[in-house]
Amino acid sequence: MFKNLKFQLLSSSIIAIILIACFIAFAANGYLIISIVFAVIIAAYIVCVNVWFDVYVSKPIQDLTETAKRIAAGSYGTQVKKLADNEIGDLTDEINQMSTKIGLADKATTEFVSQISHELRTPLTAITGWSETLQYDPAIQGDSLRGLIIITKEAERLTGMVTDLLIFSRIQDGRFNLRVELIDIAAEFEDSIFTYGNLMKQSGIELKYTAPDYDIPLISGDPERLKQVFLNVLDNAAKHGGDGKLVEAWMTAGNSYVTINIRDHGRGIPVDELPYVKVKFYKGSSKNRGSGIGLAVCNEIVLKHGGSLDIGNAEGGGCIVSIKLPLQKN
């Protein structure tokens, strides 16, 4: 096997031309039997070339394409088998090395995020605790009190980001587990609506919840993690669609799934950004602050429950998020 793929292809072309020329020459001079032999040889040669091309060119390129897709989807460290010692083989080696390096870099990033998140939790807890305590001091009034309230809110925001980062790092290294139990998903969602509805009201946003007129069956899930998903999606609706001054929420249940819908009446998401909104660290053109991993974490939590999280633009404007969760099997 020659190392140079171009030389292999050129050699095959020259041999094919010589065989065809011999066939034409013998056929023109009336050598019928020899012409038939050369025709059979040419046919066999074409079959062999096609088989060789499929094994050493087409299949390796297909494997490289599939590997590149898996790497792009986040399967860092994925390797592809080297089938030939030629230019395609060299390309295979380079892609394998790239995949390995990306995998190591991603692992180092995850470890760094986890370590930093742990380090941030202790001072944030102290800041939140003392700022809340000082708000009850009668000696603190006016601008000082308003400053403490701002400190408390910002500390809470950072604590939420740190929590997302910790969960994200656990998901990345396989340490994330659910505490599954039988739960009333309608009650859990309504609690989240009540909790966040008051915060939205303070910002001048109406949170309109339409309760189902039938009983929603129980589901198996982690109530704490699902509530985190609901609050995160509601928070996104307020931040990115709050200019519409209205957020709507409702639930439906079918034979196998319960679906939680949250819709805002803001500007929606640019069409070219929709495929990436659940990708980790992606923030798009939004000017709102955040880590860019909230929806990625929510998506992973929902997937671990056997469900799906879909995000799209609603008819008439705004964004709609649909969280689909499997019902408890009888």
Structure report:
This protein is α+β, with helices and mostly antiparallel strands. 58% of the residues lie in helices and 12% in strands. The protein contains seven helices and seven strands; from the N terminus they run ααααβαββαββαββ. The protein has helices at residues 5-28, 32-72, 87-134, 142-172, 185-202, 223-241, 294-304, and strands spanning 181-183, 206-210, 219-221, 246-253, 257-264, 308-313, 319-326. The strands form two sheets. The protein has a five-stranded mixed β-sheet. Strands 1-3 form a two-stranded antiparallel sheet. β6 (308-313) and β7 form a beta hairpin. α1 packs antiparallel against α2, α3 packs antiparallel against α4 and α6 packs antiparallel against α7. It is elongated. The termini are far apart. 21% of the residues are buried. The mean pLDDT is 81.
Keywords:
330 residues; 7 helices; five-stranded mixed β-sheet; two-stranded antiparallel sheet; elongated; 7 strands; alpha+beta
Quick description:
With 330 residues, the protein is of the alpha+beta class. It has helices spanning 5-28, 32-72, 87-134, 142-172, 185-202, 223-241, 294-304, and strands at residues 181-183, 206-210, 219-221, 246-253, 257-264, 308-313, 319-326.
